[in-house]
Structures are given as structure tokens and as C-alpha cells.
Design brief:
Blueprint (H helix, E strand, L loop, with lengths): L1 H35 L4 H26 L4 H18 L1 H16 L7 E4 L2 E8 L3 E5 L5 E5 H6 L2 E3 L5 E3 L2 E5 L5 H14 L10 E7 L4 E6 L1 E3 L3 H19 L16 H11 L9
Antiparallel strand pairs: 1-2, 1-5, 2-3, 3-4, 6-10, 7-9, 8-9
Length: 278
């Protein structure tokens, strides 16, 4: 009896040792594959721990079963506990799953400028639970990964180039051809404006008080804001020098005085004499 029990215990310990070694090897292999694929190191570390824990659970269950411990009830208890924990952490687990998906599919990377759920900023960090953005006015925004993965993601840095969409109005009495020529000259003199694809300058709209020109040059994504401010100032100064007006909206208010109101006003200015009392 003692020898039989000792033999089962020895086999269980052997299962634990060999299983631990195999579990680590498999988990390390998964981590190496992700590293070679260029995955985020945080994702590799997370999956390493996840695979290791799952395999060790199988190994421990096998070892306990070998020494005669009833594992059916143990597995049922662990399953019930896992279900309860899963329901309690439903929101957190959804963020965790979304974080894994973000690291696998990589819709954006650290350092890129994105807009998520109406918030625009530079990506600072992507963890398993949250994504941190830094806004242009130096505010840090922390978004749960469940919201990030479930909302529209606009990546302004993914393509390397962006198109400026400027709208400048000129007066109806100004020469449209002259204004377009001035704008094209300014675009050609700006070294940060890309030659390919070529810039587009055309009449966009005949508005109430102006003829609106659409100015659409292409620039590198990192130079978007600086080129925009430079071009707007240059266009304003060159239009002033060339006598091209940039009108502002005007509204004309016409007051109509009712005829009864005029009569009442005239009666108030020339009051009739009071009637004599009897």
C-alpha cells in the first residue's frame, strides 16, 4: 500500500516537473513568435503568462488525478468560480480583450496623431486596459480600450502625407484668374508643399458675399499645422498687396414703419386742445 502510494506520488511529481518544463517552453515559443512578428512586447508578455497559466492548470489537474484526488468536483468548483469572476469583471475583461486586439491588428502606433471618440491627440501608450493620448494643448486623455476598439479611429499619421483644405473668399469684383495665379505662386514658393500630387486651386462656391476658392496642397503629416498657418498669412498679405479683397459677411437691416404708427407719432407731436367742460 505504501509502495503503491509512493509510486503514484512519484509519478505525480514527475508529471509536475515535466509539465512545468514543457509549459514554459511552449509559452516562451509563443513569445518568440510574437517578437519575430513585430508584436508589442507587452502583448508578448501577456500571452506568455496566459499560456503558462493555462498549461500549468492542465498539468496540476493531471497530477492530482494521478494521486487519486477527485478532479471532477475541483474542475466544477473552478468553473463556477471562473464564471462568477468573469461576470463581476465583465467590463474589465472586455477592455482586456480589446487591448489584445489593438496590439495584434495595430490600427495606430505610439507617436501617431489620431482621433478616437471625438478626442484628437498623439498616442503616448497602449496598454492592455487603456490607451493614453496627449492633446495639442498638453492634456492627457485616458480611454478604455473597449471604447477605442468599438469606436471610429481616424489616423492622421498613417499615410505620411495629408491634404490641406483651405477656403479663402475674394470679392465679386475681383479678378478670379489673378487670385488663383497669386495662390499658385505662393504654393510654388513654399518648399514644404509637395509637388506630387499637385496642388488644386479652383472656385469652390459662389457665396452670399464672396467667391470662395478651394486651395488644396499636399504636405507631410508632421508639417500640416505649420504649413497651414504660414500659407494663410502669406495669402492674406499678398492679396492686400495685389489689391484683392477678402470680404466679410454683411447684413443689411431695413426698418419699415407702419402707417398707423406714423399717424400716432404725428398726433403725439401735435396734440389737439382739450374740450371745454360744460
Amino acid at each position: 500500500m505504501v509502495f503503491a502510494w509512493s509510486g503514484r506520488l512519484l509519478i505525480a511529481l514527475l508529471i509536475l516537473l515535466v509539465g512545468w518544463w514543457l509549459a514554459r517552453r511552449v509559452a516562451m515559443a509563443v513569445q518568440r513568435v510574437l517578437a519575430r512578428a513585430g508584436a508589442d512586447p507587452l502583448l508578448g508578455h501577456f500571452l506568455y503568462n496566459l499560456v503558462l497559466v493555462l498549461l500549468l492548470a492542465v498539468v496540476v489537474t493531471g497530477a492530482l488525478d494521478r494521486i487519486g484526488v477527485p478532479t471532477a468536483s475541483l474542475l466544477a468548483a473552478l468553473g463556477a468560480a471562473g464564471l462568477a469572476i468573469g461576470l463581476a469583471l465583465q467590463g474589465s475583461l472586455s477592455h482586456l480583450a480589446a487591448g489584445v486586439l489593438l496590439m495584434v491588428f495595430r490600427p495606430f502606433r505610439v507617436g501617431q496623431y489620431v482621433e478616437i471618440a471625438g478626442v484628437g491627440g498623439t498616442v503616448q501608450d497602449v496598454s492592455l486596459m487603456h490607451t493614453r493620448l496627449l492633446t495639442p494643448d498638453n492634456r492627457e486623455v485616458v480611454l478604455p480600450n473597449g471604447k477605442v476598439a468599438g469606436d471610429a479611429i481616424v489616423n492622421y499619421s498613417a499615410r505620411g502625407t495629408r491634404r490641406l483644405d483651405l477656403v479663402v473668399g475674394i470679392g465679386y469684383g475681383d479678378d478670379i484668374g489673378k487670385a488663383i495665379a497669386v495662390v499658385r505662386e505662393l504654393l510654388g514658393a513654399e518648399p514644404r508643399v509637395l509637388a506630387d500630387p499637385p496642388a488644386d486651386v479652383a472656385v469652390m462656391q459662389l457665396a452670399d458675399s464672396s467667391v470662395n476658392l478651394a486651395i488644396r496642397p499636399w504636405v507631410k503629416s508632421g508639417e500640416y499645422w505649420s504649413v497651414q498657418t504660414t500659407l494663410l498669412r502669406a495669402i492674406k498679405e499678398r492679396f492686400d498687396a495685389q489689391g484683392i479683397s477678402i470680404p466679410v459677411p454683411r447684413r443689411e437691416v431695413v426698418l419699415h414703419v407702419a402707417r398707423d404708427a406714423s399717424a400716432l407719432a404725428n398726433g403725439a407731436s401735435n396734440p389737439s386742445p382739450p374740450k371745454p367742460s360744460p
